[in-house]
Amino acid sequence: MPTRGRILVADEEARNHQALCALLKRDGYQVEVASDGLRARQALEAGQVDLLIASLLVPESDGFELLRAAKRVRPGVPVILFSGYGTIETAVQALKQGAYHYFQEPLDMDLVRQVVCEALQGRERAPAAAEPDPPAQRDTADAAKLGIIGQGPWLGRVLELLGRVAPTRATVLLTGESGTGKELFARAVHRMSGRKGPFVAVSCAALSRELLESELFGHEKGSFTGADRRKPGRFELANGGTLLLDEIIDIPLDLQVKLLRVLQQHEFERVGGTDTLQVDVRIVAACNRDIAEAVRQRVFREDLYYRLKVVEITLPPLRERQEDIAPPAHHFAQAYARANGRKPLGVPERVIRLLERHPWPGNVRELENAIERAVVLSHPEATELDPSLLPESIYGRQAPVAAKVTGGLHSGAGRRRQSSVLQDMDEAARAACLREALERFSGNAAAVARRLGVSPRMVRYYADKYGLPRRGYGGRAC
Hints:
Layout: E1 6-10, H1 14-26, E2 30-34, H2 37-46, E3 51-55, H3 63-73, E4 79-83, H4 88-96, E5 101-104, H5 109-125, H6 136-145, H7 153-165, E6 172-175, H8 182-193, E7 199-203, H9 209-217, H10 234-237, E8 242-246, H11 253-265, E9 267-269, E10 276-278, E11 282-287, H12 291-296, H13 302-308, E12 311-314, H14 326-339, H15 349-357, H16 363-377, H17 392-395, H18 401-405, H19 412-424, H20 427-440, H21 445-452, H22 456-465
Parallel strand pairs: 1-2, 1-3, 3-4, 4-5, 6-11, 6-12, 7-8, 8-11
Antiparallel strand pairs: 9-10
Helix pairs in contact: 2-3, 6-7, 11-13, 14-16, 21-22
């Protein structure tokens, strides 16, 4: 049988590498053994290695040091680590540092054979001078398969990390502003994990303390008023799959204790029940606020925080990744044209330029709403989006606020038109428009009301709603 590749096994324990080496040799691989880190590094530097399999406990070194050495002197060589003493955190750390795979002893030899074969096949397919980051085209294609629209370099890094973490049991914490797509990436974790169970999501901010406890853990019949039957909770429904805990920072402290127990022991009791239930659930948590600050303020448990952030991924806001504005804009235009029975609508370059100049406080969700509005208001025979149909905060952003809002203010029709436009805006667009107007008129709510052609009461209401600074009629801050 021809040699299929050269494998270096770095392990002090002879009984371990004997069984492993015998297996690999039967499969046609050329195997070399290094009993300490010095010999392993020498073999790597000599260049006669296609794959490194290393124990975390290697004399004169350790598995992580060998991993870093391999990445430095032979960046194309995949590294597989194993240990009998590691934890989930150890596995995640290995994957984050670039290991191809991590095994917990005792080794599953069938799985080892499969992973070794995949690692070497991937090396054969890789170009001779592979770049450290995947090509943008491959990132875009991989993301599209997961329902993610984007093309920035950040996306390749996130997808690579998700690909390494998803098959493990590690908890993932997704952070980022509202509208950045945290649930979309949580679903991507589930799809990449290969788990057979369902993906289940629950918003921790949308329910009261009592309802949230019942929603998460379920309840027994008669456990509280209105509990006329047994109800399974989200943990039971997600058994074998993935559970997204959205806005996890809003979980009350006493429920955080119960959640910590599930994460650590994979067991819980229903509300009003005594039977202990075992579950196998992958947890993905999401938060749009500073959870570390909540820990400092003692409204979120520190032990739960560190248990959740085994792998933390922060999704950047849309304003920091302008290259990701055009692809979803085209996607949303086509999708909402189809949904509304319209002809396919293109997004011209002048519209893209307007979109790229907007700060997007509502991120991708605001972008989607803006495109949907423009599609719905388009002429039935239109073939491309008209920029004037975008929300005023986007279309009129280049002109001074006074120029944007003074037309027709001295007529009743003009006043009614401006009032209607302001009220018809979505939340993010209205907040952006008022913020800009208040800044221009130094927070004078009366002056803004006159310019916008709306009542001062409306300006004060929305300014207070969005936390925008304003002054009253007498010039005092209010």
